[in-house]
């Protein structure tokens, strides 16, 4: 029994240390990633869109194969996991051990085999020309050379053999970073108004933020992995102010939010005005400006919803598609403090025709045929993305090792052997290089020319 | 800073650059047809170099007008890509003595120039940046990628050269194990060498592709990681499986396969050349395809608000 387990373990290690498996996985991952790129993905376009595109039957079939969300399907995850295992095991079993041979002397080889080297040549031996001359010439070219009896071995380079190790260390570092983040990190998104604040909270499957009567007591849902050993920081994040700056053309130039982080005793721990590309980073919690917009508070058949206002030709509108070809356009009109109403239009979905239906005053509800519509004013909300990425710091050393490894890997190891034949009248010399053979051949030819001239 | 036109100086130098490329094609092509005309090849390189210099000047003019590194739209991206192709080619030509396909590279460059010229003005104008693009990360993220695309491209030309050499020009030749060459260096001193290919030239093509990939792969890796870091900065997520990201990942897997395939000396050069060609197809699907075929996603800006 013990023996069987041992055999299984060995077979496993053997299989997962092979480069063949790595190549197979690379190719499978390339193909599946390509499929995932070309097919629309559910997290990007939404399930409704996919059902519309494929029809329900086909959608269900594709979904069961994971083809509606390739990158989160079990088999894609399995491929990545296999690659990770392969990388770890191969690195330790195959790549790192190369350290030892990187600087070793080449093994001695016989005259016969020197003649079989990729580049080789024969000389007549005479008094002025012997192994010492070759040794001297090679040392001038920065070779390490030594003579053992009637044989000479010389080598230059070898450092580059470490390149692959360093690169692999880099990738392993990234892998560890990803694992730490997956196990302990989280992320999420909230939309909050000025003078409102939120706590982070694990709301389970509920991914919608929870408002409360007090504006500073919102709960923002975090999204995390199923297996999770992290901790949710107990801070209150408050939006002091939020605004946008425009280009002269009216396009947004930048969005800003002035944020404060408080502890449980309402003591301010940090404060910063963030904008896109300039987040607030506080003790492992990062808060990003993600989007920004004006929202209208509307009730639809007595259900309260918050909808983003679009600025279309100078009008603030919301368009709700009702069916294939007809929709509802809600237009907010706020002239000054006194007037704040919602105008309703029915429109065709291509926007070609529209018909005025009526208007709702702020804090009122009105019945339109089967629909009941209420309007409760507008609010400016800032979209904040937050996340905790504890493994993130490993990205930089990982990247450093990958790059350093690649630079190290550039060299080539050149080896030269020479031997005097049994009759002591001829000398054979030959060489090999593991990379850029063309260049080595050139160097070899130069060496031989020089030797031929000197003798 | 809004809606600046293209200055006349910039246009002038851009045109000089394109015209130099056009001339370089002919010099390279003639020297390719008749390999004795070494001087013409040198002239070809000289004109490419001239093109590089004027393109640099054009970029400086644009950069000054914009007040930052000019990499904000497709036009600028193409111009910098052309710059990278010229620079990479000249470097490889100098360092590894490439010949044989200078005319192909120049002809391709001319196409890039023409394409850039024919872009609608809206794609060329200096437009205000949407919030997500206003970041120094842009200049760290994109240039390594463009440089890697340029190197992969040259590598692919070399692979195509390899396949033509082995499968068309030497079709009759059975896949011999080695080819031996013997050179007489001095009286009675003969060097014999062999390479595991049908011809020296095939060996050379294979080696150039390998060089290009070893330069380009780390650049691609850096570009992808920088992209993730930027996304992290801008959107708070390192990786979102956005089509441009995943296409880049496809490319990365393919070239990783290439590098590891090479570790096995029994793998034939044709397989490697084929992988390099597939790789370059993925590169251009990443570069243009994602936007052109409308895979959607975050790299098509303007939908942010
Ligand atoms: C997943 C399983 C992997 C296995 C089994 C594997 C195995 C190997 C082996 C055995 C070597 C040769 C080392 C030497 O000759 O000193 C090597 C080299 C290399 N590996 Fe990997 N590797 C894997 C993943 C990766 C990944 C994900 C990358 C991505 C960057 C990578 C990048 C490299 C590079 C750049 C080289 C050097 C190649 C060259 O110099 O031609 N490897 N790998």
What would you note in describing this structure?
The complex is a heterodimer of chains A (455) and B (305). Chain A has helices spanning 2-16, 19-38, 42-45, 47-54, 56-64, 74-95, 98-102, 111-114, 131-140, 161-184, 395-408, 437-454, and strands at residues 119-124, 144-148, 151-156, 186-193, 197-201, 218-223, 236-246, 252-262, 268-275, 280-282, 285-300, 303-308, 310-312, 315-321, 326-334, 340-348, 354-361, 364-368, 371-388, 414-420, 426-433. Chain A is an alpha+beta fold. Chain A has 2 domains: 39-72 and 186-388, no CATH class; 105-158 and 412-454, TATA-Binding Protein (2-Layer Sandwich), CATH 3.30.310. In chain A, strands 4, 5, 6, 7, 8, 9, 10, 11, 12, 18 and 19 form an 11-stranded mixed sheet that branches. The longest helix of chain A has 24 residues, at 161-184. Chain B has 305 residues and is mainly α. In chain B, 70% of the residues lie in helices and 5% in strands. Chain B has helices spanning 8-33, 38-66, 74-96, 102-118, 121-124, 137-169, 200-235, 243-262, 269-292, and strands at residues 179-186, 189-195. In chain B, strands 1-2 form a two-stranded antiparallel ribbon. In chain B, a hairpin with a 2-residue loop joins β1 and β2. In chain B, α1 packs antiparallel against α4 (102-118) and α6 packs antiparallel against α7 (200-235). The interface between A and B is large, with 71 and 62 residues. Bound molecules: protoporphyrin IX containing FE (HEM). Protoporphyrin IX containing FE (HEM) sits between chains A (19, 22, 83, 86-87, 90, 94-95, 98, 161, 163-164, 167-168, 171, 409) and B (256, 259-260, 262-263).
